[in-house]
Amino acid sequence: MKRALTDLAIFGGPEAFLHTLYVGRPTVGDRERFFARLEWALNNNWLTNGGPLVREFEGRVADLAGVRHCVATCNATVALQLVLRASDVSGEVVMPSMTFAATAHAASWLGLEPVFCDVDPETGLLDPEHVASLVTPRTGAIIGVHLWGRPAPVEALEKIAAEHQVKLFFDAAHALGCTAGGRPVGAFGNAEVFSFHATKAVTSFEGGAIVTDDGLLADRIRAMHNFGIAPDKLVTDVGTNGKMSECAAAMGLTSLDAFAETRVHNRLNHALYSDELRDVRGISVHAFDPGEQNNYQYVIISVDSAATGIDRDQLQAILRAEKVVAQPYFSPGCHQMQPYRTEPPLRLENTEQLSDRVLALPTGPAVSSEDIRRVCDIIRLAATSGELINAQWDQRTRNGS
Ligand code: T4K
């Protein structure tokens, strides 16, 4: 256990971990099952273009989301593009700035204009009042993001979308298996999009899925993700290649098999982080609504530098030196990123404050209770030694280290 500043690796102490701890280690599940599925796909001589494993994966994701249709894709970014294009969205798309760049890129890549909205300062979720104020005749769609697996204010957004007759989609990249008002994420708005990237609670190496109850939209997306080829083999739309392969589906199915276990592990990890850090002034663990289901794939802390004396970036550097790779999800907000910056700068006060403070800590089945206790010891020591750290930090900077 580290007790003095000199114990911290950043000030010359030994690293706390032999092996690096990461946010979002892949949850591959039972390797034998994965290899068996892969072998089966190879024997089946069918590797992509809507093969049986992809169809099975789509069925299981649709069931989990409680919807009628699912189209699996090569990733969630392309899935978002497909949804927007297949829905004939034009003009502006209102979305939170507090999200991964992919949400904005998906719209921008199609020539649509992201209009960034502020978020609730506590939850990081879209502020419906601000959304309503940004909807104009140029608005083609609203994209809500279920940030860190917490459901966006779906009812309020559905009301705004209906009132203004604009399309509503949800970026549910973080929210597989989560609920909003007790209903599974997946069935809200016109369509929702999941990610099965390597770092997600369920992975297919790279992968995504569009889920919807709208059969016509699903048919159009299914054609569009396969070069615009309709079931009668005629090209009916400008399409792209957004398909999921059988190999990815084999991984996705195997990771899905392990999802219940992953979720329990993540929930226990989240509870342990919350317990361990409860009394640390200036550090708060973002809580999830106990009335909803969550996948707990992200453990997000907020660093109040006025209370700790150190800021989020310093804490991230201190952890990094100990071989703990924490991630500032998401910082900066999209509106402050180079492609989206404006002059004069757009100010989104809550997003800016939140994105300066948040840090995602390592979790997932690869992270044990012992790991978490050790990470929390480091955070506790750092958060209660702000003044001393800053004195030495200046010294390090002057020494050029
Ligand atoms: N919408 C939202 C709200 C999203 O968060 C995302 C993706 C998307 C849309 C788009 O989904 P996809 O098109 O990707 O399906 C990562 C992921 O690349 C990205 O998928 C994810 N969100 C985002 C939150 O995280 P980076 O740049 O932080 O990745 P990287 O390489 O720094 O890795 C993150 C952590 O995971 C590190 O601690 C290392 C560890 N890691 C990573 C990989 C790739 C592993 O342990 N194993 C691995 O294989 O973006």
Automatic annotation (TrEMBL):
Single Gene Ontology BP annotation: polysaccharide biosynthetic process
Keyword Transferase belongs to the record: yes
Residue positions where N6-(pyridoxal phosphate)lysine is found in the record: K200
Family annotation (Pfam families): DegT_DnrJ_EryC1
Key words, A-Z: Aminotransferase, Pyridoxal phosphate, Transferase
Active site per database record: K200 (proton acceptor)
Family, per entry: Belongs to the DegT/DnrJ/EryC1 family.
Name this protein carries in UniProt: Aminotransferase class I/II-fold pyridoxal phosphate-dependent enzyme
Provenance organism: Saccharopolyspora erythraea (Streptomyces erythraeus)
Taxonomic lineage: Bacteria, Bacillati, Actinomycetota, Actinomycetes, Pseudonocardiales
Gene field: eryCIV
